[in-house]
Amino acid sequence: EREVRHLKVGDLFLWGNTSVDYVNKKTKTLLEESGKALVYDAALKWKPCLGELLHEKGARYLLNKINQIQEKNGFNRYKDKNYLWNWTTDDNVLAPDKPETFQGLIEIMSEGGFLKPVIGDVSTDVFFKTTSKAIRELIWWKRKARILIKSELNKIFEDCRDSGEAIKDGSEVSIGNDEASLFVNKIINISPESHLIKRTDLGKIITNA
Question: Which of 26, 146, 196, 199 has a CA-to-CA distance to 176 between 20 and 30 Å?
Fold first, then answer.
């Protein structure tokens, strides 16, 4: 292993790519093997309820309600109403960043009756606590799934290398019908300039159009 600042033209480097679906599959398998299969649904069952609210009331309605909670807690306001759909569709977003925002969101869904199918007679406070606990567990298991996927890929790569197979620019190993892969590429040029990148772009290969 070598620090990025010590890399030079001609060096080979490994980078990986794993689909969200494959991480979810691996996570579910680990949960089932550990007798914790219910954790996955317990963490995410609020999402369809939010989808119903957005379809019926609209994103602007929810944006106004959420920003009331943000202002009450001294948090930054949400500006893009369409971002709220990410809470229902993005598998990497398990809940809003702030617990207070998530608890307020649960209250909003409950007031409109959208939580009734999953909450029953349980109070919103209890539902918030049990869901938050399930989300924390799910985050842990997702992290474990990613670590295991990386280990599996590294093992295959090391086996190929140890067997004498040539490791060169363009080499690739994969698992799960190519849903998780390791790639080998050669550094052909290094920019003398440093560039700031967004946190959301970490771990991505960025090319200039």
Answer: 199
